[in-house]
Amino acid sequence: MSGSMVYKSVRQPKISDVILQQIEEMILEGTLSPGQRLPPERELAARFGVSRPSLREAVQKLVARGLLTSRQGGGTYVADQLGSGFSDPLMALFERHPEAQYDLLEFRYALEGVSAYYAALRSTPADKQKIRSCYEDLQRCHDLRQFEQEVRADVEFHLSIAAAAHNTVLLHMMRALFSLLSHHIGGNLTRIYPKADYRRTIHEQHGLLLQAIEAGDPLAARKAVQDHLAYVEDALQEQGRENTRIERSLRRADLNLTDKTAS
């Protein structure tokens, strides 16, 4: 074989860059979540088995990239705003236009259908334990009728399923929806929870979703979450129709009262 071969020198990666990559992967996989505080520098350096100056250099680079923040008074945190794709003005817009809730339900139908499907296929025993723990928290709030805590627990339950799908883009899309979902689920529950049968059915549907994921049945899991969201949409539409009927009857009552007063 003629000609000389070209050899590239193998450069040893900097320790700080290796640490940086590992922390980035932990953020990407959801092991570190937005707003979470990192362990103290000494402890983190010991966990990685590196020197504190190398760790400090990695953290500084991640702060420069906007992934970590250093707060006054000490402590390094994963950036709060990570993945907050829905800004406050847009959230306010969704809330002012109630018809947008059906677009959001349609979006959840697609996103959470995929999420549940892959969670059933890929969830580890630890993932399943996390989902069950979230469900049990939801059950407690449901039994005690703690409305605000139930909304939070409902969102956490759905997010734990997204994490168990082991798709980083899917997880962060769901995280980006978090505040919007909180408002959306809260709004839904406010409108349809006064009726006990709606409330009971929705909770039973969460249980079916959990069972399908624990059984490792992706088709049943996808169907469970889609049936759940279709039911919520039907319940909201029925509630909307009922509110309209009540408004009409009140208007008629007002008119009758006006007529009697006039006569």
Automatic annotation (TrEMBL):
SMART domains membership: FCD, HTH_GNTR
Residues in the signal sequence: none
Sorted UniProt keywords: DNA-binding, Repressor, Transcription, Transcription regulation
Source organism, top-level taxon: Bacteria
Statement: the UniProt record of this protein carries the keyword tRNA processing: no
SUPFAM superfamilies (UniProt xref): GntR ligand-binding domain-like, Winged helix' DNA-binding domain
HTH gntR-type domain residues: 13-81
InterPro entries cross-referenced by the UniProt entry: GntR_C, TF_FadR/GntR_C, Tscrpt_reg_HTH_GntR, WH-like_DNA-bd_sf, WH_DNA-bd_sf
Name of a matching Pfam family: GntR
GO molecular function: DNA binding; DNA-binding transcription factor activity
PANTHER family attached to this UniProt entry: PYRUVATE DEHYDROGENASE COMPLEX REPRESSOR, TRANSCRIPTIONAL REGULATOR, GNTR FAMILY
Function: Transcriptional repressor for the pyruvate dehydrogenase complex genes aceEF and lpd.
Protein name: Pyruvate dehydrogenase complex repressor
